[in-house]
């Protein structure tokens, strides 16, 4: 029986042999009231990548996009009869169909590109998870409200508790959970320094044409610097990135050339007063007057059935 990684690779190759559908559909959470910083960054990265490839797609927001995704992570695309989740899998799938942003690179340049992508995933992604699920002010004022906004009470509290437990377990394994915000900023600064040095004298990371790493960096830098306002405890992270003008210019260049954005993204950290009509729960009929549940409530419930 093949290992999971081999099985995933075989599946992607078989799916890629199918003819192109008329349009790709990209599924993601609702931007105004629901999406969180890590998901917003990933969604922007995939959108930028598809635009760079010249592939038409339609964005389809869904309140339960995370649970529709085969991997439990967003975004994911629907291409014909297939569902492909997450940036790396989408890049591989599109590449197997004959469209790649890095075909012109040498083997050494491709290895460098993969190294920088790994750096971004190991630093920016963990920093975003830390901001949302570890920093207490952000957790209580933003994350819990947005993540649970489309579900009824008490399901919203349970899903917040479940997601936080999952993220904390991951950050603990990676050594990020016990970091201070100052240490997180230092990690981000070191990552930005490496990326900025690579951009020295070039419009993109591999010369005058964008590659997959450009799309990935764009998504995270744009999300972290355009989210406004960030809670006071984590504003330092955005200020840290703003110390690197080359990264900001790189983000603006991709914005102009591929995304045609003229203003801040609608996915800003903003607590919406009302939910979308298509969300799972209508707050006008909610019983939010009931007291909120704490994380301890679920710990007691599941540890002492």
TrEMBL record:
Single biological process term from Gene Ontology: mitochondrion organization
Keyword annotations: Membrane, Mitochondrion, Mitochondrion outer membrane, Protein transport, Transport
A single Gene Ontology CC term: SAM complex
Pfam annotation, one family: Tom37
Localization annotation: Mitochondrion outer membrane
Domain Metaxin glutathione S-transferase: 188-254
InterPro entries in the record: Glutathione-S-Trfase_C_sf, Glutathione_S-Trfase, Metaxin_GST, Mito_Protein_Transport_Metaxin, Sam37/metaxin_N
Domain of life of the organism encoding this protein: Eukaryota
UniProt domain Mitochondrial outer membrane transport complex Sam37/metaxin N-terminal: residue ranges: 43-164
Family: Belongs to the metaxin family.
Protein name as it appears in the record: Metaxin-2 isoform X1
Lineage of the organism: Eukaryota, Metazoa, Ecdysozoa, Arthropoda, Hexapoda
Gene this protein is translated from: 726364
